[in-house]
Amino acid sequence: MSKTIKNVFYQNLTFDKLLAAHLRARQHKTYKNEVISFELNLENNLTNLLNQIKNHTYHLGNYYCFTVYEPKERLIKALPYRDRIVHQWYVEEFIKPYIVPKFIFHTYACLKDKGTHKAVEQVQKNMQIFKRNCGDFWILKCDIKKFFNNINPSILFNIMKKYITDQDLLYFTHLLIFGNNPSDISIGIPIGNYTSQFFANIYLNELDQYIKRVLHIKYYVRYMDDFILLLKTKKECIEIKKQISSFLEKSLELELNDKSRYYPYKMGVNFCGYRIFTTHRLLRTSSKTRIKNKVKIWNKQYQKNQLNLSQAIQSINSWLGHSSHCNCYQLQQRVLKSCDFLLQNRTYQEIEQHFLSDISLFYQEMQ
Q: Which pLDDT score, from 0 to 100, does residue 94 have?
């Protein structure tokens, strides 16, 4: 594979590839009005999009904004559907095949066959190996202050230029990073764009390479802007933290969050929703609190006959999937038994249809 991306932009700009991007973008959104509207004149809409990109007349649409509150409050910015098709096309045709393979192995966010559970498993595996080979050790846990909001688009674009020498692709990348008004350079990239996930990973790949190639840290795992290093001593943690902080500030104009700290491994480490020890994993307290509060709300809604049963089942099913990756069987049983709406005959078919098999068995046992 070439060291840089060149002579591929128009080669990958085809109707069939935009159609494939549309089919990916519409997943789980088939019945949304903007998707239906786009599909009513699908061939013309995709052809117009293709021609606009080819003629350099394509512009991003206007963002619409909304706020999410879990796991923490964040402002999400979303583009119109046609732009989401373009993002799918850009990422799948250029970012994934050419840039993602250059990442270190132990970065886990937004990548195929990776994710939070694989990241957690790797951290625990690292802890077990380090303990077996070196005895007691220390954990340096870091995250970055307001990461997406502090990414510098100019630095990001300069990083992208290291990977891209195709001038048409570089022009288009500049458009995606800076938007329609490149003279108005504001710090940060929108949370919510499909491209943002990958631009953020590319941005912090600079940190990954520094930690692995310059600092030579063997036991290192990153999930987006949270990362874990295992080191032999407290003194080493102090020194490495200073070096990482300096690199982030000088090279990426980022700061470590005040919560970044180091401690003995016996305390365990909070990472990706779990508290990880060498011998076992526990669910974080915040996750326990959230599910208990949700159950209280669901029970109240059920008593008033206002509960959306399908959504409640989906939500608790998701939590059970998450909690099944740690040692909390007794907690799962307590949560299930506290759900009044699961103990009524009239919900059985819904549960049977939507829940995992072990939940259906639980329900049968409760009859």
A: 97
